[in-house]
Amino acid sequence: MWWKIVLFVVMSWVIIAAFVYPAPQQGIGEASRIFYFHVPQAWVAVLAFVVSMIASVRYLRKGDLLDDDRARVAAELGFLFCLLATVTGAFFAKVTWNSFWNWDPRETSIFVLLLIYGAYFALRSAIDGAEKRARLASVYAIFAFITMPFLVFVVPRVLPSLHPSDSVVDSSGKITMSSTTALVFFPSLAAFTILFIWVYWLGLKISVGQRRAAEEAVR
Amino acid sequence: MTSNYAVMAVTLIIWVGLFVYLLRLDRKVKRLEEKK
Amino acid sequence: MASPKSSYGLAAKSLAVLRKDILSEYRTRYAINAILLFGVTTLTVVSFAVGQIGLPADVYAALFWIIIFFSAMSGLAQVFVKEEESKTAIILKLTADPTPVYWGKLIFNFLLLTLLEVIITPLYFVMTDVVLHNAALFFTVLILGSIGLAGATTLIAAIISRASIKGALFAVLSFPILLPLLIGAIGGTKKALGPVEAPFAAASSELQLLVSYAVVMITASVLLFEFVWEE
Predict the structure, then answer these.
(1) CA–CA–CA angle A79, A84, A88 (5° rounding)
(2) Is residue C6 domain-resident?
């Protein structure tokens, strides 16, 4: 119970500080504040994918439908945060480099993640039968996950980054993040993560409840 | 009220609303769990 | 489920599956027709639209792979879908282990893709007047890219063959997974089309991507295939 209060306080702090403190990137100005929200959203989108992939692996090994619920709920949340990250990122890009989209490696990866989530749900809705759906969706989640290292590590060496997007972010990244920036960024990261865990847990309980109720109704 | 504060206020209001919604949902789920 | 011990190795079993698929495809020619027709049609459209305009090499590289990708989407799923539709899938599952089935169908898809490329590639150069500066690099990228393309899509073809509504599912599922491959292939082809010195060195990151992609995706497919194949 207490952690919910902590979450409320921390997120409120983040929202206030993000707008009251000096902007993290002096050169770009006010819009750079998006950074405090955009990066944690992208992080949660990837975290959710990892959770979904692990649950998928567990389903394939044990066949427990609860793992399929876990994979699906995590994917639903991941999709939402991925959408948020993509949109906030596009606005950040527009203000920083004057164009909404440019296919630089980071933008490409988050967009591909969005497509993967979309494909995952399209696949699920195209299969009848809980076990079959769980099995095929799990295989796809794992298979899709494997492409992530390519996008994160290999593609950046291949795709020309017209905008040194990573170097700009890195200038407010770990090495040169000012202490005021860090004071807002890391709590934001923590708050978004806790928010994800809470909503994931709620979604899971509701899902399982719905599935069990449906099973009872059939009997 | 400068625009920075306006955005902050709106965001804060949205967050409070979202948080209250989640809290209520959380309580409903707890009650259903106890019933089973 | 233990399968009866057989004196045939993996290679022999895979080739048996391959032979069966080639024979049945030869009789119906369904996938070949679909893929070739789609390829030629798209190529015609491309040539008509931008063929005589002097566009930069990048554009021709991208268009080439767009043609290949969409043609692949129209034909590579057949190898599994036809089993489900003609109800022979059950028999295949009973008589063969998953791994040789996968390998056989992977090679079939690769051959199908190669057939497409043998026809489309010369036509592409003829119809768009683009100059090929580095043939060795071009064909290396083409072969590696095709292996990766077949490798990634064969498993997905198996997945969608089990779905009830297939529609555009194959393309929807394949595209996000193929994106790294397309980036590498288009990049490498671009360098092969443009006048580049030491082409293989210049395209080294793309080549590394293509090779590692093919290896990783095929390995993962082999491991995951049995979960898709079982009833």
Answers:
(1) 150
(2) no
